[in-house]
Amino acid sequence: MKLPQTESNTRQLKVARQIQKDLSEIFRNRGMAVYGGAMISVVHVRISPDLSVAHSWISVFPSEKAVEVLKLVQEHTKAIRGELGHRVGKQLRIVPELVFFLDDSLDYAEHIEELLKT
Question: What pTM value is reported for the model?
């Protein structure tokens, strides 16, 4: 059963999409060298109803560096949030706290594909 779209749900979705876009640009602008030659893409962002916390799932290529890169991103969260604040400061009253997670759906799909081959 799908919940009806309320005004707050719509706002959450719009803000989450904007944060996903801005985070992607921030990682792209910082370059791969900052993260040990790994490419980071922001797969999904979910924001709390009060817009104060943004949970962000990132995908790292090559996936062997994923844990190492996640640690680097988590160490730089404060600086990333500052850059995000410059981008969304005019649209949002509060820049949300950022929490990063690894998205391993590609690795999982690869694993399933390998299992199906045998």
Answer: 0.84
